[in-house]
Amino acid sequence: xxxxQGPVRGLEQVARFYLSDNQEDRAGLxxxxxxxxxxxxxxxxxxxxxxxxxxxxxxxCLELARNRHPVIIRxxxxxxxxxxxxxxxxxxxxHTPEGLLKVCLYGLPDILIKAGDSAxxxxxxxxxxxxxxxxxxxxxxxxxxxxxGSIERLKGMGxxxxxxxxxxxxxxxxxxxxxxxxxxxxxxxxxxVSLILxxxxxxxxxxxxxxxxxxxxxxxxxxxPRYLGSFVPDAWLEHxxxxxxxxxxxxxxxxxxEQMITIADQFLLWFREDHSxxxxx
Amino acid sequence: xxxxxxxxxxxxQEQVTRICAxxxxxxxxxxxxxxxxxxxxxxxxxxxxxxEGRIYLIFINTANFSDTLVRSLTGYQRFMQNREFLARxxxxxxxxxxxxxxxxxxxxxxxxxxxxxxxxxxxxxVEWYRYLLFGSQSNPELFVExxxxxxxxxxxxxxxxxxxxxxxxxxxxxxxxEDILDFLEKIRA
Lengths: 281, 189
Description:
The structure holds two protein chains of two kinds.
Chain A: H1 6-13, H2 23-26, E1 40-45, H3 50-66, E2 71-74, H4 84-87, E3 93-95, E4 101-103, E5 111-114, E6 142-147, H5 151-155, E7 162-168, H6 171-187, E8 192-198, H7 203-221, E9 226-231, H8 235-243, H9 255-272
Parallel strand pairs in A: 1-6, 1-7, 2-5, 2-6, 7-8, 8-9
Antiparallel strand pairs in A: 3-4, 4-5
Helix pairs in contact in A: 3-9, 6-7
Chain B: H1 13-26, E1 31-37, E2 45-51, E3 54-60, H2 65-81, H3 83-90, E4 102-107, H4 114-121, E5 126-135, E6 140-147, H5 161-168, H6 177-188
Parallel strand pairs in B: 3-4, 4-5
Antiparallel strand pairs in B: 1-2, 2-3, 5-6
């Protein structure tokens, strides 16, 4: 990436952030850096839809950054799947001395991408992930780790407390999602799960289905997934992927973009709320 | 101000097929294995596709529904007759050619009770999609509605749980048959 052009494009990309009425968006541009104890690690998985997982990661990290949270992401796309770097190729980036890819959007906190490792590599334990290559300490960092939907990989993920699952809304996709939660619930202590649905159904229908899904899963697995919202893909999804520009950065309003922003807001609320009801006795 | 969309009549089968293929890939997560499989004499399949390991034969009506229906049945039969060869040609470990493929028909409309009659008389899985095109010939926009999508799922007693586990890659999840059937029964409710 040409450094001289990066900031110019960065200004354009983040223009809408500074047109926001939300004072919190504008407050403080200082960077925060994570310590092992304060980093918020979330595993993100879209069983059967690796492209949607990477798409979600790309958009989620930008919305977290807009809310003043620096982010480090690690994803494991397959050979034929688009990588995070491809999903964000229209954004100005540079490589850090530590070998991370840094998304350089003016005024936003750091977004660091750790290059995809081979699919067979061990997943990081909680708190282990950020220790390489990030200086300093702080309290606002998020670490997003992309997970494949492989049952075997979920079994080996170690202790991670929060998992976000994205699934299509049809019964078979939800069955696969249920299988993932079943495996996680038996192998991961203190598990908290959130759920995002995507598909061709209308949002109220997907909300009802998510409620049904949560009831079944909480009864069977002892974990009550928190529903973050629905996403109905439209033409802008393809534009976003083809152009390598995350959907939330588009100036044009579209239902899909609004849904993605709502999902990110709910994702943050999920962290701030009391999780006492998330585990079913 | 409300924007009034006017239907676009497009008869170029090649172009409509490409547009509909995009829907199945982008919206439904299908994998397209082949475009225009076969010919007029053997039955031409517009799209040979796969979803979660299952084979789909997709036919798209651009003019006459009756012709498309006959073409789809002929194409389906031809596929079954040549299944072993096609499995070698297109198969992979993730594709299950041993199960009956799903017959999917896209049409702007379905005359009378055709869909209902076919659904009740055929023992093969059939899915119906109504599609409409808008915009212009050079920049068409597509609307697709899956009809009776839930009912297209087989009855629970006919579900092959072994194949289901394999197709969904959940063999090692530790879910019992009762767990799966109970889940499907409740989530379909």
